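Lecture notes, part 5. Sequence design as translation. It can be helpful to think of inverse folding as translation between two languages: the language of shapes and the language of residues. The source text, in structure tokens, appears below.
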């Protein structure tokens, strides 16, 4: 009876506290805002799909090693930045040769027709790829919105997908389709716009009259699971009024109970404040809170018809990249760039489906996992990544695993953990025995290969564990690219 009274009392206290927790108010300062927890689903998700899509998808061209979604800026500034040696006017010359010197960027709005866009097909592909969330560019730095918005037209002409080109609410259609699946819906939003008159002439008015009402309209209209901001680097967070906006977002907005944000809220704030941390074309980062690496399948985020098959990362590289990021506790946000008519290029579809096939076998070693005691098992040698250019290409992971340069170390194994089990992911299928260092087995330890229905034998060798590999024919291999061993009941 005493235990019953104690349980009832605890339940009563919990019920009394629930409204207090739900009604928690965040102050408009980082000290308070940074206490908002990142929802567990995000840490469990591990794999998301980024989508860059807009008027820049019409010309869909920039030199290899640069971002094609920056077409307007490259065109009007006659500058280029990326990996490679550029004169700077390559996009301008391409534009003049293709469209003429008097053809303004804004004409691409009408040509952005999205007439072949099928949101249900996209959503089905994302689910089949094994993605747990997507992030769609609702507005990039050119200011064109993929949803009907009043502020998009304050240049003096219509500049949104409902009135120009597609004549469709593309954000709304994809949001509706994705929410029929288990996949979470996120929206990218650029804080600044290169050539908006207010941005160029009165940045405080731009924030007050354009940015803040526009981003609030986006949140209220679609209530995304993620608000993925960008273009924050031109001004400090105070001038963006980021703390004020986030307090509104967390306390008052229609999405306040569920919305998640990243860390791009002002100059110098990345990996310091906001929600989860972000990296871009980087590797080897580790943080003490949830984080995400974003990069394209090729180099560009937007579709770049100038990129060839060899410019796209192989399925093997993308899978190993995912494993590498996850072993360091992060998520991979992998970008695709549809064309102006709404087609996802077949090579991008193929890569997504190949990743999905691998995750169908190995998802247990990825989804819902956390960092293990060590992220990887290295061979002897130099661990530094040889890197030229401003951005780290995806081939880095192949050099770190299956194709090292002389004298360089390789990651022999990657590790994740979940529910008391250690997952050991090998980028090479073992021809002989597989040695996992610094792992102590117990009398209850069991070892299995995901996708293979027979238990594996192993031996304890001091502080190491040696898996004795059976003879497995090529047609018996459960997957390609990387193989996951589940080791349970360790010390």
């Amino acid at each position: 009876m005493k235990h019953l009274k104690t349980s009832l009392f605890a339940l009563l206290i919990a019920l009394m506290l629930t409204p207090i927790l739900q009604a928690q108010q965040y102050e408009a300062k980082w000290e308070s805002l940074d206490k908002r927890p990142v929802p567990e689903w995000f840490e469990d998700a591990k794999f998301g799909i980024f989508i860059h899509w807009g008027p820049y998808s019409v010309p869909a061209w920039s030199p290899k090693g640069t971002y094609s979604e920056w077409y307007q800026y490259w065109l009007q500034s006659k500058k280029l930045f990326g990996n490679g040696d550029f004169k700077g006017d390559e996009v301008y010359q391409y534009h003049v040769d293709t469209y003429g010197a008097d053809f303004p960027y804004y004409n691409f709005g009408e040509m952005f027709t999205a007439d072949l866009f099928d949101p249900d097909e996209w959503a089905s592909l994302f689910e089949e790829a094994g993605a747990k969330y997507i992030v769609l560019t609702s507005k990039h730095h050119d200011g064109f919105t993929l949803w009907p918005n009043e502020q998009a037209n304050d240049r003096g002409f219509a500049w949104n997908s409902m009135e120009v080109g597609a004549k469709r609410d593309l954000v709304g259609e994809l949001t509706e389709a994705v929410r029929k699946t288990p996949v979470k819906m996120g929206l990218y939003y650029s804080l600044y716009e290169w050539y908006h008159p207010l941005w160029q002439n009165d940045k405080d008015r731009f924030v007050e009259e354009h940015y803040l009402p526009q981003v609030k309209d986006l949140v209220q209209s679609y209530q995304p699971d993620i608000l993925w901001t960008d273009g924050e680097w031109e001004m400090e967070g105070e001038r963006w009024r980021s703390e004020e906006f986030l307090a509104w977002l967390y306390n008052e907005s229609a999405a306040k109970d569920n919305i998640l944000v990243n860390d791009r809220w002002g100059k110098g704030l990345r990996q310091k404040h906001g929600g989860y941390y972000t990296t871009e074309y980087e590797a080897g980062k580790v943080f003490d809170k949830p984080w995400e690496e974003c990069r394209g399948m090729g180099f560009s985020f937007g579709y770049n018809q100038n990129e060839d098959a060899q410019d796209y990362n192989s399925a093997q590289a993308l899978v190993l990249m995912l494993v590498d990021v996850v072993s360091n506790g992060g998520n991979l946000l992998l970008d695709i760039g549809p064309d102006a008519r709404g087609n996802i290029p077949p090579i991008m579809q193929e890569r997504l489906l190949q990743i999905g096939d691998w995750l169908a076998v190995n998802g247990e070693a990825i989804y819902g996992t956390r960092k293990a005691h060590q992220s990887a098992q290295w061979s002897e040698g130099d661990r530094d990544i040889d890197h030229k250019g401003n951005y780290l290409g995806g081939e880095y992971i192949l050099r770190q695993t299956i194709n090292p340069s002389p004298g360089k170390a390789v990651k022999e194994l990657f590790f994740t953990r979940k529910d008391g089990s250690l997952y050991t992911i090998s980028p090479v299928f073992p021809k002989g025995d597989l040695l996992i260092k610094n792992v102590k087995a117990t009398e209850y330890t069991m070892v299995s290969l995901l996708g293979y229905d027979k238990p594996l034998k192993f031996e304890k060798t001091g502080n190491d564990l040696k898996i004795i590999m059976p003879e497995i024919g090529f047609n018996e291999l459960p997957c390609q690219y990387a193989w996951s061993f589940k080791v349970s009941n360790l010390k």
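The translated text above is only one of many valid answers, since several sequences can fold into similar shapes. The mean pLDDT is 94.
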